[in-house]
Amino acid sequence: LRELLEEYGKVVDCYIPTDRETGQHRGFAFVTMDPDDALRAADETDGYELDGRILRVNEAQPKGSGRSNNNWNDGYDGGDVYDEGADDSWGNEAY
């Protein structure tokens, strides 16, 4: 995933959560990139097949924001998805 997205710009961080019980990937990831690079990467990789899975790429939303998973792009304005002052260390540098 990191290699694919690095084709669109610098990946600051890539966190792929795993299930606590099984250790298997949970099927989603959080990637931090420059906003312009992230928007281009999302536009060009949404629907891309990677390792037999179709990627659905969108901007992360706060938990409980009430955003529908069925229509993620409603109201998306390409807003600030990168905060230089934030601690971007998720402790998962292997991806």
Description:
The chain is of the alpha+beta class and 95 residues long. Helices cover 17% and strands 14% of the residues. It contains two helices and four strands, in the order H-E-E-H-E-E. A two-stranded antiparallel ribbon has the order 1-2. Strand 3 and strand 4 form a beta hairpin. Mean pLDDT is 79; it is low at 71-89.
Supply the key terms.
two-stranded antiparallel ribbon; 95 residues; globular; alpha+beta; 4 strands
Write the layout of secondary structure elements.
Blueprint: H1 2-6, E1 11-15, E2 30-33, H2 35-45, E3 49-50, E4 53-54
Antiparallel strand pairs: 1-2, 3-4
Q: Helix coverage percent of residues? A: 10-25%
Q: Point out poorly predicted stretches.
A: 71-89
End-to-end distance: 7 Å
Strand order of the largest sheet: 1-2
Tell me how many strands there are: 4
Beta content comes to 5-15%
Rg estimate, integer Å: 14 Å
| Largest pleated sheet | 2 strands, antiparallel
Shape: globular
Mean pLDDT metric: 79
Number of helices: 2
Structural class: alpha+beta
Give, in order, the helices and strands: HEEHEE
